[in-house]
Amino acid sequence: CDSNEGPIYDTVNGQALVAFNRNVQTFPVDDSGNSFTEIIVGVTTVSDVDRTVSVSIDPASTADPSEYTIDPASLVIPAGEFVARVKLTGNFNNIPETGQTSVILNLDGVEGAILDDETTNRLFHRVNLFRFCPFTDGANFLGSYELTVLSTGIFGVETFIPGTVTLT
Question: For residue range 13-22, what is the model confidence (pLDDT) as tens digits?
């Protein structure tokens, strides 16, 4: 007489449900040319064949298509695996210098799996893109800067003292 707590899933022969692992992430894009992030698509069962992941870009996205690239080779859940790691590369030079934009991916399907919106509400994934320290030609930020305090710190207590700050 065993007592089981919580559901037990059959990861081999059970019903295959699929969803993103989360709805939102922030992606600071640097100027290295190699700045990428991975968006995780998970399925509850394994398969003995690769499964194609189908995504589309939501019209509510504010990012221009020139600001990012999705690697088509990453749109696969490999045989024997539970996840696909969708690779999104940020194109630093095309992202606005200030603020952020977002690309929203809709999960349209995975071969042999059911979209799991009812349980997870994770059939979309928003990636917030912004320029991370817009370096120019390998420039660094060493040197002296003038620090101006515009408002007091935590609980009205002055946290920083105005004046010259040197970064070494």
Answer: 668 899 999 9
Could you tell me if 51 and 121 are in contact, meaning their C-beta atoms sit under 8 angstroms apart? Answer: no
Q: Can you tell me the distance from the alpha carbon of 159 to that of 117, in angstroms, rounded to the nearest whole number?
A: 45
- For residue 161, how many other CB atoms are within 10 A of its CB? 8
Using alpha carbons only, what angle is made at residue 100 by residues 98 and 144, rounded to the nearest 5 degrees? Answer: 40
* C-alpha dihedral sign at 118, 71, 65, 30: positive
Give dist(CA 9, CA 84) in Å, integer: 20
Which whole number is the average pLDDT over 3-22?
71
Q: How far apart are CA 88 and CA 67, in angstroms?
A: 10
- Whether the CB-CB separation of 107 and 77 falls below 8 Å is answered with no
Model pTM?
A: 0.73
**Coil vs helix vs strand at 106:** strand
